[in-house]
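Our working data are protein records whose layout never changes between entries. An example says more than a description, so a record of this kind follows.
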Amino acid sequence: MSFAEERFQRSTRILRWSGAWFIQSATSSPPRVPLKRTLTRPYTWYSALCLSILFIIESGLIFWTLLFSFGMRKMFLNTLYVVLHCTVVTKTFLSVLSLSLNAKKFKKLMGKARRFETSRNFRPLPQEKRFISKSTLRIWGQGILILVFVIIRNMDMMYMVDIRSIPLLIGLNLVLGSASVLLVVYDGAYSTVLKALVEIFLAYMQKAVYTLKTARHVTGSTATTMLEACRLDVNYIQVSKLQLEKFCVLDAS
């Protein structure tokens, strides 16, 4: 496995755990798999299950608030809840749609990264080992954010529903919790993939800068060769950077 594939899979693992099938297609190097073979894979049905849970639960919550819960709380509070919830759900599905529509372009960028590593014999710089790294803090931060969101949302829904059966209450909490987690994860799906690609090409740029620093202490034809290779690398990364900037503009919009 190349550096790009390893870094990309590590950065997007939370999406793959949540059944984002387009992540799998964006990183796989073989050609497109026939539909019949795709339908026989357990991963496809797991993805369909996750998306079904998200769609059914979110639609059910909105209809529940519109049809049944206006007598339990104030009109303004319910209206605000429906508007905010519809906005979050719409934004989430737009993020998923943007990612699935751009999966082919992301796959091309991954292909360029593979060819770059093969042609340049790329080896990443050794990373300084830290007890707590930025990636660890980011993962824990995402986990805490999801947990807070799930707790607040479940408390809000339990306030509107009077359930006396403990098993039913536990089951409802599990279903609502899974839907809440999927909502948060899918809402940042496009940004997660984009960030993973930026990290890959940033590592390439760091290696180019390291090569330039090393070339200062080398003379003769060796230095010329190193500088020429570094110039080609920087030009290549610059083109990829422009493509990533287009995706960033799309993400911001």
